[in-house]
Write a sequence for this structure.
């Protein structure tokens, strides 16, 4: 495991930006909740309230199926297969970028910052989503989970990205995400977190997980990571 030794006095000092996807770059709520509903129906469970399924956005799916519906691990992995049936065909495209985020990603890239996607979502889906919304070419590296959900914890995704990029932990890195999983996964590598409040996590959740800075919206996120001078 890498441990960062580069202190950031402000988010703008970062040159490597690790970015979460769901709840940070895009609002995936429609596709994910419909995918979960599809999976639950295969087990005879009919859930009609999409907002009840918002806790599925962010953490590994197997954890959520076990936590909220009492599935054992084998059943949870079967549920993931059913989820991916829907998600691969429709769900990944039932997704909307937050206003201004595409332009901000390209601005950061143009400034010479290195953008690294760090998502628990299977990498194959993440790549297609970024390409669909014109974000992919802003990224230096796209790191996601694997379809088998063995690399889904955020700390494992970040570790994978750092190894692929040859980072030692001494570089000026910053994690940007909306849930505690982002902050905790980054902290395992000594990377500070800027939490965004327009996604699916609360201010209290992010602060308790160790986020050092918070952005209420995309405009504030852009101001906190101001243009390099």
């Amino acid at each position: 495991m890498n441990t960062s030794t580069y202190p950031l006095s402000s988010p703008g000092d970062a040159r490597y930006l690790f970015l979460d996807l769901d709840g940070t770059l895009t609002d995936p709520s429609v596709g994910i909740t419909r995918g979960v509903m599809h999976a639950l129906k295969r087990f005879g469970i009919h859930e009609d309230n999409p907002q009840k399924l918002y806790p599925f956005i962010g953490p590994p799916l197997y954890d959520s199926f076990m936590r909220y519906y009492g599935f054992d691990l084998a059943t949870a992995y079967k549920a993931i297969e059913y989820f991916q049936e829907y998600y691969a065909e429709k769900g990944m495209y039932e997704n909307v970028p937050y206003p201004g985020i595409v332009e901000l990603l390209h601005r950061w890239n143009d400034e010479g910052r290195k953008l690294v996607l760090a998502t628990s979502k299977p990498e194959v889906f993440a790549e297609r989503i970024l390409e669909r919304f014109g974000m992919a070419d802003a990224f230096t590296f796209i790191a996601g989970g694997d379809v088998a959900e063995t690399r889904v914890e955020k700390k494992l995704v970040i570790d994978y990205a750092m190894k692929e990029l040859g980072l030692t932990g001494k570089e000026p890195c910053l994690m940007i995400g909306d849930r505690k999983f982002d902050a905790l996964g980054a902290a395992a590598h000594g990377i500070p977190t800027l939490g965004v409040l327009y996604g699916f996590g609360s201010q209290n959740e992010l602060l308790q997980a160790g986020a050092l800075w918070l952005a209420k919206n995309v405009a504030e996120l852009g101001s906190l990571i101001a243009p390099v001078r």
Q: What stands out?
A: The longest strand covers residues 114-122. Residues 73-89 form the longest helix (17 residues). Residues 11-27+96-224 form a domain with the Rossmann fold fold (CATH 3.40.50.1000).
